[in-house]
Design a protein that fits this description.
Blueprint: H1 2-23, E1 40-43, E2 51-54, E3 60-64, E4 70-72, E5 78-80
Antiparallel strand pairs: 1-2, 2-3, 4-5
């Protein structure tokens, strides 16, 4: 009986893992990454709301809307939070031309 329970938990965990990867897709955006951006997730501002990923070659990926609220950096601008702690963003993306 205990083995069946563990098998069910393992199956459910794998289902969640593969399903979440399927829906984490990249969408086209007119926003651009900052010059010399390091690989990582970036937050948008009011011009480019959402969560993005930039790479060192200038590529950008729009992941989706801001789902964890916004935080202020003290200069009057609010930025989209990546997580509940409003952390792990490397900077902000810029509006495209």
């Amino acid at each position: 009986m205990n083995n069946i329970y563990h098998l069910c938990i393992l199956t459910l965990s794998l289902l969640v893992l593969f399903t979440s990867g399927t829906f984490a897709s990249c969408t086209h955006t007119s926003c651009v990454c900052p010059p010399n951006a390091v690989q990582g997730e970036y937050c948008g501002d009011s011009s480019c709301p959402g969560i993005f990923e930039c790479n060192p070659h200038g590529g950008i990926c729009y992941y989706g809307p801001c789902t964890h609220g916004c935080c202020s950096i003290g200069n009057g601008k609010d930025f989209c939070c990546r997580d509940e702690a409003c952390s792990a963003c490397h900077g902000t993306v810029l509006p495209g031309h």
